[in-house]
Amino acid sequence: xxxxxxxxxxxxxxxxxxxxxxxxxxxxxxxxxxxxxxxxxxxxxxxxxxxxxxxxxxxxxxxxxxxxxxxxxxxxxxxxxxxxxxxxxxxxxxxxxxxxxxxxxxxxxxxxxxxxxxxxxxxxxxxxxxxxxxxxxxxxxxxxxxxxxxxxxxxxxxxxxxxxxxxxxxxxxxxxxxxxxxxxxxxxxxxxxxxxxxxxxxxxxxxxxxxxxxxxxxxxxxxxxxxxxxxxxxxxxxxxxxxxxxxxxxxxxxxxxxxxxxxxxxxxxxxxxxxxxxxxxxxxxxxxxxxxxxxxx
Length: 297
Known about the structure:
The protein is of the alpha/beta class and 297 residues long. The chain has one domain (2-268): Rossmann fold (3-Layer(aba) Sandwich), CATH 3.40.50. It is built from ten helices and seven strands. It has helices at 2-13, 44-50, 67-77, 90-100, 122-130, 150-153, 163-173, 178-186, 192-209, 239-268, and strands at 21-24, 58-62, 83-86, 109-113, 140-145, 215-222, 228-236. It has a seven-stranded mixed beta sheet, sandwiched between helices. Helix 5 (122-130) links the parallel strand 4 (109-113) and strand 5. Helix 1 (2-13) runs antiparallel to helix 10 (239-268). The longest helix has 30 residues, at 239-268. Mean pLDDT is 89; it is low at 271-279.
């Protein structure tokens, strides 16, 4: 999905701009392996750098663990490209990196936030959204939102949530409004799935109402057992971005159930190819609703 979207993004941008920017805030290590098949997987930096019609002209990757090796490995494959691996926490370094590229804030820009927990902050999202202030379109955002992890971080019986986890979640949302959802879950007013949906909705609501994105799309990713593991939230104010991601999410709705079946077959030693699952409604944008407990004007 990432490769397909980035390819479409640069293709749509190439006739209008000589510069195309990319920010990858959790670039990952140089080596990745598919858990079930054991096959190597190229990480998001390789995916972004391999897009060539047209290529991204300036790419900035943030990674703390293994940053030096990642830089060396990327440079071996893409010697002449304008990219850097920033060996710092993206939340601490984002302002300096955006300032470095301020002269290019007119260019189409895409940011990928792919953490393995509540590790980006609202301040970082806000900085990205503000990078193109005064321009027609903001930086497009595609974010992994780990709302199923809140189930582990926010117990509903027994122990209280740890203060450090509360602080991380508040920093991610940029508000403590999420606590209203958590308290409703503690009081038995809403079920776990409803709570997860409300957390996702709150993030989408804030992206649209606080940062001004016109469309936000969310897509639930599940593992091979069918359990939710995270949401992919996309934010754009460009009609082309909205149209492209709607198409990709529609296709993924058909592919993911079959992909889970393929994973089960691989576990049993009987791999098979999959076709698109029939009878699924195409994905369509739906605006976020008024957040739980939100006081309207």
